[in-house]
Amino acid sequence: MSAETFEFQVEARQLLQMMIHSIYSNKDVFLRELISNASDALDKLRLEVLRDEGINEDVSDLHIDIEIDKEQRTLTVRDNGIGMSHDEVVKLIGTIANSGTAKFLKELKEAKDSASSEELIGQFGVGFYASFMVADDVTLLTRRAGESGGTRWHSTGEGTYTVESVDDAPQGTSVVLRLKAEDAEDQLFDYASPWKVREIIKRYSDFITWPIRMAVEKPAAQEPEPGAAEGEESAAEDKAEAEVETVNSMKALWARSKSEVTDEEYSELYKHVSHDWNDPLETIRIQAEGAFEYQALLFIPSHAPQDLFMQGFRRGIQLYVKRVFIMDDCEALMPDYLRFVKGVVDAADLSLNVSREILQQDRQIQLMHRRLVKKVLSTVKDMMSRDADRYATFWKEFGAVLKEGLLSDFENREAILGVSSFASTHDAAAPTTLKEYVERMKEGQQHIFYMTGDSRTAMESSPHMEAFKAKGFEVLLLTDRVDEVWVQSVPEFEGKPLQSIAKGEVDLDTEEEKKEVEAEREQRQADFAGLLSWMTDQLGGEVKEVRLSSRLTSSPACIVSDNSDVTPALENMLRAMGQEVPEVKRILELNPTHPLVSGLRKAHAEQAPSGGDAAKDEAADGTADDAADESGTGLAEAAELLHGMALLADGGELSDPSRFIKLMADRVERTL
Ligand SMILES: Nc1ncnc2c1ncn2[C@@H]1O[C@H](COP(=O)(O)OP(=O)(O)OP(=O)(O)O)[C@@H](O)[C@H]1O
């Protein structure tokens, strides 16, 4: 049958271009990727057969073969695993399913230097395509277990690939690489050298639980004579025999004792299960004995993957039962907020046929889940006390995800709060823990103050912050989306209630200070009563109330919410998620010491019929009526502008921006 030519999907093509021009310096990893895929394929086949899904294949000798042809300069990786159907080849090899790809490629293009490109590739992992770093062309021959015909795929990685049906393919998949010429300067080594290949397998794939076999040249039985000349030595080499050997030790790392396993070996297992090319930040081992026996090796990555916040992000826990791979992405073992944790859990007493549904309800699994979560959280806690830099990396990468747990994991809420840290006005660079915040609280301070917003800078210059700054109260600055939500559901930490500085009334004065200013406050209240009730009416459609503020020192006005109201940011978020949110009216607070506000009060008092007899006296004369109308309109517009300014300072949206601009322009014009 003739070959059909297909085009690679756009993203795949871009990625391939990068591989061909190999911007990744460690090219050895191509083999790890191919072996990893082969091992997965063997896992899948064994599982299908164990579950008796109607597949009738010989699984008595599942393994991976590596073949080298020095003359042809080819390297072949062959497995007798699950294989791929014709459609699967087109779908899986010609396109990239990972939803973070487009973003990844954009960042890669923008990456300034090769070090940051490498880091990005490392975070993403390019799988099969890594072959094009070392090969000019790649041929893949595969037959899906249970099907009779096979498929041959071939490409030079340049934009198109061909796919052809073949009658006589062995079961499984073989990938043949036609190797590029060696270029040691570019770290392109001689991958047709059995020793090099063997070294790579030992380094990256030793723990793979399937035998990886290859022909290794053994010196012939008879040793060269001692003191033999060079020529004789090479004659002896000619007599070397190729012997097929299993290169890897095949030992499941989680089943070996801790002292036997090196950090490098753990790292390689991590790379295999996570598809990450970087080392993990932390490795966690659990050996549970007793009624329900299991072993777990968990890893915290050193980078958050691109698609961590995308829907359908896959959790990285693989479930094994007595060394047999059962499933990827075992959601029953790790909660959503720890979805970044990767690793392997090997349980001794589960059925091989266990399904996701059964797992969700299994009591033993629930106990395991609890233990794993506690262990991850305690590891983070240790990291915090042991290694501040490492914890800082963890928090930067995963803090926003971990905080989701404050909403869903009531049992571990204290533990999550304990390992969380937050930007704060106390220090421009270093975040603080809640415990540290509480230790610094001022005498008499009852609340842990926080503000939510888009950026630190915006919050620091927000009107809400003024009184807190003036009086030296520390405020937590929360910028993650999830912060808007969890602060609503976590009432307190160590008995100290959390309080938004943009909500409710602010009361930062001590009892003494209050006494001192009481008389003044009452006077102000009386002086402004007329203006406040007039403005509340005037802006009635837009605000709940207009009142005097005790949080402002330099701004004229600000918008605040009632304690029980959702914040404007949360309102927007909920709407964006398609939820119906009833419109919440806010409170407008005025700064009585600001000239604009005191001026407005004066103008209002003079203009208002009750406050100014002069207006009444002159009412007989029509011109005075017009003047009063005009100043009434001016006053109303001033109130409207003040409200608009407060909204903008809060990062809010104006209901009619063009009207606001016109009013503002008119006023500015009059000052010229
Ligand atoms: N030897 C193989 N046998 C069967 N299927 C394979 C084999 N190699 C690759 N595949 C299929 O092709 C898919 C794509 O492989 P590829 O290596 O590009 O990505 P991946 O392993 O899924 O993930 P990553 O890109 O993160 O490494 C695999 O998920 C698998 O379904």
Question: What descriptors fit this protein?
Answer:
672 residues, Heat Shock Protein 90, Ribosomal Protein S5, domain 2, Rossmann fold, nine-stranded mixed β-sheet, 23 strands, binds adenosine-5'-triphosphate, nucleotide-binding, unfolded protein binding, ATP-binding, ATP-dependent protein folding chaperone
Gyration radius over CA? 35 Å
Note poorly predicted spans. 228-237, 611-621
Give the mean pLDDT.
86
The CATH architecture of the largest domain = 2-Layer Sandwich
> The CATH topology of the largest domain, please?
Heat Shock Protein 90
Largest sheet: 9 strands, mixed
Helix content: 40-55%
Q: How much strand content do the residues show?
A: 15-25%
Query: What is the CATH class designation of the largest domain?
Result: Alpha Beta
Number of domains: 4
Strand order of the largest sheet: 1-6-5-4-7-3-2-8-9
- Helix/strand-derived category reads alpha+beta
Q: Give the helix tally.
A: 23
Distance between the termini: 84 Å
Entry summary:
With 672 residues, this protein is α+β, with helices and mostly antiparallel strands.
